[in-house]
Design goal:
Elements: E1 2-4, E2 6-9, H1 19-31, H2 39-44, H3 50-61, H4 67-79, H5 91-100, E3 105-108, H6 113-123, E4 131-133, H7 146-155, E5 162-166, H8 169-177, E6 181-184, H9 192-197, E7 200-201, H10 205-211, E8 212-214
Helix pairs in contact: 1-4, 3-4, 4-6
């Protein structure tokens, strides 16, 4: 069992099944500028923030990018389709139990606040998180530890008491760099590095819940 004084959730690919929609939005953005955004490129950028995605687009296709302007365009394209999102298996049950046990809960996402707010509103769960930290709240997105360290600070729980739930290697690296335990719930097979860095790798959030030992206040 993994002791847990506070539970930190990633959003894209962990809380919501958003990676397919992200790929479609990024592909349409790149295609409008003459680039062929492949699944391989999209997968390599998962969890690392919009600035990194735009940098990869520029390096891959050569079209000019302005991070602030173009990130805003992509976010608005995504927000316009947020109704297409669905929650990942086991999320509602895990969040409900953490709430009932009064375990502090935070959402830590590299995405922009506008997008995170729209996604939380889509499912009506904002009030069930004690803290929400987004990519524009910190100096460095994942795989840097900034987002998770800020979430722990807002919850008032030391890093060693936090358990992070993540689907991406960048997120697992960020949690480990923050000195936190991390359960990986990848979209597909876990890479050797993810398996080596995570405390556990599971198929879904039901399996993640089975590993947690909540230490309530």
């Amino acid at each position: 069992m993994i002791p847990c004084r506070a539970l930190l959730f990633d959003m894209d690919g962990l809380m919501v099944d958003s990676e397919p929609l992200w790929f479609q939005v990024e592909r349409d953005f790149a295609r409008a500028r003459g680039g062929d955004w492949t699944e391989e490129l999209g997968t390599a950028c998962i969890g690392q923030g919009m600035a990194n995605t735009l940098r990869v687009m520029h390096e891959s296709f050569g079209f000019p990018v302005e991070v602030e302007r173009d990130a805003s365009v992509i976010v608005e394209l995504f927000v316009a389709r947020v109704a297409e999102l669905t929650l990942k298996t086991g999320f509602e049950e895990l969040l409900a139990e953490a709430c009932s046990r009064r375990v502090p809960r935070a959402l830590g996402s590299s995405s922009a606040r506008r997008l995170v707010d729209a996604t939380l509103a889509r499912f009506g769960v904002r009030e069930r998180f004690d803290a929400v930290v987004t990519g524009d709240c910190v100096a460095h997105p994942k795989p840097a530890p900034d987002i998770f360290l800020e979430a722990a600070r807002r919850l008032g729980v030391p890093a060693e008491g936090c358990v992070v739930l993540e689907d991406s290697l960048a997120g697992v690296r960020a949690a480990r760099a923050a000195g936190m335990r991390v359960i990986a719930v990848p979209e597909g097979p876990a890479s050797p590095e993810m398996t080596a860095q995570a405390d556990a790798v599971v198929a879904n959030l039901h399996a993640a819940r089975a590993l947690l030992s909540f230490e309530t206040p």
